[in-house]
């Protein structure tokens, strides 16, 4: 995978409530209202590493976190793009429509996940969305998935 310029790195902590050891995204390289791309280096002490490989569950969690940052940004930022303080969210995968794992990355591999918003429903304090995503390690396709997410602000 080619190196990413520090100028293009977007702090994932601005878009997700997750923190170590459950954070499965290192940073974002791009985010819009309908698409996102994340980068994650697999480390030996990761909770989803088994026998030197990042597990299927880890790939799906990486995809879900990448996807949820698209919707998460609307909770963490105002319409004027100002950060909101002390936002608390709860979110989960409400359904996996399709997931195909082609291969597993190893410890020390860096993966890149891209996701696109397919549909979204917003209420006053929660969102339900469908996302399509793909995860690559270099040119190797690791995962293709279509997942549903539920994200709610806890007040």
UniProtKB/TrEMBL annotation:
Pfam families: ApeP-like. This is 3-hydroxymyristoyl/3-hydroxydecanoyl-(Acyl carrier protein) dehydratase. SUPFAM superfamilies: Thioesterase/thiol ester dehydrase-isomerase. Gene3D superfamilies: Hotdog Thioesterase. InterPro entries: ApeP-like_dehydratase, HotDog_dom_sf. It comes from the Bacteria. It comes from Flavobacterium terrigena.
């Amino acid at each position: 995978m080619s190196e990413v310029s520090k100028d293009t790195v977007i702090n994932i902590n601005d878009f997700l409530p997750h923190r170590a050891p459950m954070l499965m995204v290192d940073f974002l390289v791009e985010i819009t209202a309908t698409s996102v791309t994340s980068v994650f280096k697999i480390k030996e002490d990761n909770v989803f590493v088994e026998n030197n490989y990042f597990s299927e569950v880890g790939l799906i969690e990486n995809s879900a976190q990448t996807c949820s940052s698209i919707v998460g940004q609307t909770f963490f930022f105002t319409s004027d793009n100002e950060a909101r303080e002390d936002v608390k969210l709860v979110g989960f995968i409400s359904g996996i429509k399709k997931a195909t794992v082609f291969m597993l990355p190893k410890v020390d591999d860096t993966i890149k996940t891209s996701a696109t918003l397919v549909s979204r429903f917003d209420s006053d304090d929660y969102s339900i969305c469908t996302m399509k995503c793909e995860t690559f390690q270099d040119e190797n396709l690791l995962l293709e998935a279509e997942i549903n997410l539920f994200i709610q602000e806890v007040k």
